[in-house]
Amino acid sequence: MSFSPKKWYLFVLLASTVRMVHAQNEFISANASSNAAKAALATDGDPATGWSPGDVSQDQYLLLTLQTPGDVDRLQIVADGLPTASLKAVFVTYDPMNPGNAVTYTITGKKPLTLRFPPQYGAHVKLVFKAGTFIIREVHVGYAEAVIRSADTLAAKPWLNAQLPVEQRVNSLLAVMTPAQKMELLREGWGIPGIPSLGIPAMNKVEAIHGFSYGSGATIFPQSIALGATWDKALVEKVAMTIGEETVSAHTVEAWSPVLDVAQDPRWGRCEETYGEDPVLVSEIGGAWIKGYQSKGLIVTPKHFAVHGAVMGGRDSHDIGLSEREIREIHLVPFRHVIETYHCQSIMMAYSDFEGVPVAKSKELLKGILRDEWGFDGYIVSDCGALGNMTSRKHYTAKDVVEAANEALAAGIATNCGDTYNNPAVIAAAQNGGIDMENLDYTCRTLLRVMFRNGFFEHNPMRPLDWHKIYPGWNSPEHKAIAREAAREAIVLLKNEGNLLPLAGGGNGSAGGDNGATIAVIGPGADDLQPGDYTPKLQPGQLVSVLSGIRQAAGEKTKVLHEKGCAFTGDGHFDPQPALDVAAKADVVVMVLGDCSTSEAIQGVTKTSGENNDYSSLILPGNQERLLEAVCATGKPVVLVLQSGRPYNLSYAAEHCKAILVNWLPGQEGGPALADVLFGAYNPAGRLPMTFPRSVSQLPLYYNFKTSGRRYDYVDMSFHPLYPFGYGLSYTRFSYAGLTTLQHADGTVSVKVTVTNTGSLKGDEVAQLYVTDMYASVKTRVMELKDFQRINLAPGESKEIAFTLTPYQLSLLNDNMDRVVEAGDFRIMVGGCSPSFVAGDRIKNSVGYASASDGLVSTLNYTAAYKADFALTPGLTRKDEETGKNMVAVSVENTGNLTDAGQVTLYVNGAEEGDVRHFELVPGVSKTIWFPVGETGTFTATFATKYRVVSKNYSF
Questions:
Q1: Which pTM value belongs to this model?
Q2: pLDDT at position 509, please?
Q3: The pLDDT of residue 22
Q4: CA separation for the pair 709, 282 (Å, rounded)
Q5: What residue stretch is flagged as signal peptide (predicted)?
Q6: Labelling 916: which of 207, 244, 330, 857 has CA 20 to 30 A away?
Q7: Torsion angle of alpha carbons 270, 543, 207, 216, nearest 10°?
C-alpha cells in the first residue's frame, strides 16, 4: 500500500485514543508453558472456551503476541477460579526471550479483572501465574494514546512530514526527545523496539547467515563456510536473494549478517560462520551475499568489525594483538570492500580489540576508519554484551556501566544488544547529566537517518514475528532446489584413489549405474545431518540426511545398510562391532563423520563447532577417529564424508580412505546433494576456503604467509599442509594454456588464460588468480589470491578467462605505511588451486604449478610506480547547526595516482585540539574536513598530515 503526501496527512495510522480491542483482532499467536495447544482459546473471542494449565505444581505463563505493537497500558482478564493473588507478574516486552522488568499495575473489578499500569511499549504480553486450578477465558489489551498523522500533528511533529529533508526531520525529532527516550531508541530487543508515542517505528531483525533463523520452517541453506567453498559469486547472490524473500515474507527488514571475519585458526568454533581464510574470497563471497540480500530492499549488518577471526589458540574473542599493518592487509579488507561497494547501512562491532583498545570504545576504528575513511553513513550495532564487557566483567577499561555507556556513545555505537544502554543506572545518568548529550545525540542521529532514509516512518513493513507460523514462500520447492544446488556446489573432493567415485549403484541415470552394489553408511552423521549454528527450530523431516539421500538415489538393485557406530562426542564405552559387521557385508563403506553443530532448539547435545564452541585437537571428536580406523582396518574401500564447520586433521584418512569428500554443514538438502555427487549425477567442484593442516601443532597455518628468517619445516613434521587452500578435485580433468599478461597505460593489467576440459565428463572448474610480489621495500606474502571465476565446461570445451588487475590490487603498505605500487617483477599465476612451493630459501622463486593441468605461471615486469600525494588547503569557517560549535575546515586533495588513506590533525595556537581525522581519497578527488574549535577571538589553526603542514589565522 502507498499514499501520496496529501492523503498521508489525512490518514490515521492509529485511529483512536485509549481503546480496548476485541480478542481475535488483538493477537496473532498464543503460547503457554503447559497445555500450549489450548493457549489460543484465551484469545479466540469466545468466553465459553479458555486455557487452563492443568494439574501442575509449578508457576505457569501465558505468552501472547500482539497484532499491533504499541504502548500498552491496560489488560482485561476474564477468568474462572483466579484469585488476584494468583497473578504473579505481568510483562509487556518486545523481546519474549528477555522480557525485562515486570510492570507495576493496579487491579479493579473481578470479572473481568482490569489491570492498569504506566504505558509500556511491546509486541508481546506475558502473564505469569502461581500454580493453581483456574481457566483464562479471554484476555484483552488496551493501548495508550496513539499517534494520529493528521495535518495538525505534522505541524506539531514535523519529523513525521516526509516532504522535509532528512536532516531537518532528525533535528526536529531530537529536539523534543527526552534523554530517557534517546536511550530507549538505542535499546535492542530482537531489533529496534521504536517509540510509538513519537511515531518512531520498530525495526525487526533476524540472524540470516544461511537462512531466516528465527521461528521455524524457513529454508535452511548450507552454512557460510560451505558457501565459501562454492567459490561461486552468482550462486551466493541467488542464495541471499532467496533468504531475502523469506525475510520480507516474515515482515522483517534487517539481517545481522553476513560474517566477514577472516578465519585464521580452524580450532575456532565460528569458522563455520565465515567464508574462509582469505580476505579476497571473503570480500567477494560476502559481497555477493550482501548484493543479493539488499536487492530485496533489506538492510544488512555485516559483522564482526573487526579483527575477530584472528583468535589466540582458536579461542573465541581471545586477541593476539595484531599490528596495524596486519589488520589493514587482512582483516579490514572485506569490510572496506562491502562498505564502499554496497553502501551497507549498518555494521556490527566485534568483541575483539583494535590495537589494544576494545572495539566497543575505539573511535580510531569506528569513526576514523569506518566513517571518515570509508564514508560509512549508517549505524553501528553492538555485539551482544560487548559494551558491558568493558567493565570488570571482561576488559577493565570502564569502572561501571555508566562509564562503559559513555565510551560506547563516544565511539558512536547505536544499537545496544545486551545490558548497558538499558541499564537503570545508565538511564538515570542520562537524565541527571551523567551521559554526554553530544555523543548521545550523535549516535541517535546515525540510527534515525537510516530509518528516515528508508521511509520506515511512513511505510513500516514490520510486524511482530509469529514464532509458530510458517510464512508464505518459506521452504518452497523452488527454495529447496536452490538449497540443494548450493549444497552440491560446496562439496569438495579431496581424494579419489583409483577413481572409486562416482559409485556404482545409483538409479535415475546416474553415472555409476545400478549394478547391485551393497553400500554401508556408517557414522554418527550418517542419519543425523548437522546444519550448523544459527539454524532455526527444525520442522519434522526438514533435514534430509546422507543416509536418506543415498536411499532415495540408490537404484532398485542396490542395497543400503546402516549403522551409527558411535556418537558425535564422548569417549566412554565404544563397541565398533555392529559397524564392522555392516561393513563386512558391503562393497563400499560411506562414513559420515565430523562436527555436531545444530539448532539451539535442540537440547542435550555437546556441540563441537559454532559460537563459543572451540575445539582444540582437530582430531575427529569422541570415538569417531577410532571408528574410522576400525572400519578402514577391514580392508573395505572407505569413502569418508566430512560433515564439519572447519578443517580437521585428516592425516589418517588421507592415507587409508579411498576417497574423501567434505560435505561441510550442508543445510537441509545436504543428503540428496551428497548422493548426487556420490553416484555421479553431479560432478564436484568445490574448493577449500581454508587450509587443512596435517596436525594442530602446525597452527596457525594459512596459505598467504610471509617469508621466514630461518627454516620452515619442523624437526618432526613438514611445513606443508595436508590439503592447501583452494584445493579440490573433479571427476573430469582440466588444463591451462596461453597465459598472457599486458600492462596498460592506466596501470591496469589484463590477464588471460584458456581453460580446457580434457576429460570425459561435464564439470566446473574454479580458475584462481594469484600474485607474488617478488621484491619489495617490505616483506610481502608468498602469494595472494586476487580474483577467481567458476566456469562450466563440457568435455573437450575450451574457454578463455579474462581478469583485470588494478594498481590498487598490486599495491602494498611500504615502510612508512603509505600505500604504493613499486615497479618490478610480479609472478602472475592462474590455476585450479593455490600454487605449490618449496619451503626453503628462495621460496618465492619456487611458487607455481607443477603442470599445465594444475595451472600456469608468468612473470610480469611492471614498469610504473604509483602513490598518493595529499595537498592541504585551509578552508572556511561556520557554526555547526547541531552542536552550536565554531568550526574550521581544511580541504585535502589527492594529487597523486593511487588511492590511499591518511590523517589530519588540528593544532590551535600550537596545541593539538579535537580528534585526529581520517580520510581516504581516490586520485583527483578532494574532501573538506571540518574541525570544532573552542577558541574565540583571533587564533592560528595549523593542519598537519604526515608530510604536509599548513596554517591560517581565523577569527570568531
A1: 0.90
A2: 59
A3: 37
A4: 29
A5: 1-23
A6: 330
A7: -150
With cell 580476505, the residue in question is 279
CA-to-CA dists, residue 259 to 274, 720, 771, angstroms: 6, 28, 26
Residues 374 and 448 in one domain: yes
Residues 670 and 751 placed together within one structural domain of the fold: no
CB 522 within 8 A of CB 565: yes
Give the model confidence (pLDDT) of 63-104 as tens digits: 998 887 778 889 999 999 888 888 999 999 877 767 778 999
Residue 332 lies in a domain: yes
- CA distances 422 to 51, 192, 411, Å, are 34, 13, 18
Let me know if residue 353 belongs to a domain. yes
Sheet holding 638-643, edge to edge: 492-496, 659-662, 638-643, 588-594, 518-522, 559-563
Which whole number is the average pLDDT over 1-21?
Answer: 30
pLDDT in tens, 234-282: 999 999 999 999 999 999 999 999 999 999 999 999 999 999 999 999 9
Question: Residue 619 sits in which domain range?
Answer: 477-686
Lookup result for grid cell 569557517: 877
pLDDT value of position 18: 30
Residue 6, pLDDT above cutoff 50: no
- Extract the C-alpha cell encoding 696: 594442530
Identify the band that residue 358 occupies on the pLDDT scale cut at 50, 70 and 90: very high
Residue 224 main-chain phi, psi, to 5 deg = -55, -40
Helices assigned H by DSSP within 464-591: 477-490, 546-553, 577-584
Q: 383 an active-site residue?
A: yes
Whether residues 44 and 77 fall in one domain: yes
E-strand stretches of 710-844? 734-743, 749-757, 763-773, 784-793, 798-805, 812-813, 819-821, 824-831
Q: What is the pLDDT of residue 17?
A: 28
- List the grid coordinates of 774: 617478488
b/e 740-778 (16+ beta carbons within 10 angstroms → b): ebebeeebebebebebbbebeeebbbbbbbbbbbeeeee
Q: How far is CA 174 from the centre of its chain?
A: 31
Angle subtended at Cα 298 by Cα 786 and Cα 304, rounded to the nearest 5 degrees: 50
Q: Per the structure block, which three cell numbers stand in for 187?
A: 535499546
Return the C-alpha torsion angle 274, 276, 278, 280, nearest 10.
-60
pLDDT given at position 334 = 98
Residue type, 102: A
Domain count across the chain? 5
> At 528, which amino acid appears?
D
* Domain at 352, CATH number: 3.20.20.300
Same domain membership, residue 862 and residue 872: no
Please, what sign has the CA dihedral across residues 715, 719, 721, 722? negative
**What is the distance between the terminal CA atoms of the chain, rounded to a whole angstrom?**
52
pLDDT surpassing 90 at residue 824: yes
What is the overall mean pLDDT for the chain?
93
1: CB partners within 8 A, 6+ apart: 459
Coil, helix or strand for 241? helix
pLDDT 10s digits, 167-209: 999 999 999 999 999 999 999 888 888 998 899 999 999 999 9
CATH for 749: 2.60.40.10
Q: What's the full length of the chain, in residues?
A: 956
Residue 42 included in any domain:
yes
Least confident of 114-128, 448-462, 533-547, 605-619: 114-128
Angle CA 94–293–246, to nearest 5:
60
Number of other CB atoms surrounding residue 655 within 10 Å: 9
**Active-site entry in 261, 278, 383, 527:** 383
- Specify if 694 maps to a domain: no
pLDDT in tens, 715-766: 999 999 999 999 999 999 999 999 999 999 999 999 999 999 999 999 999 9
- The answer to whether the CB of 153 falls within 8 A of the CB of 113 is no
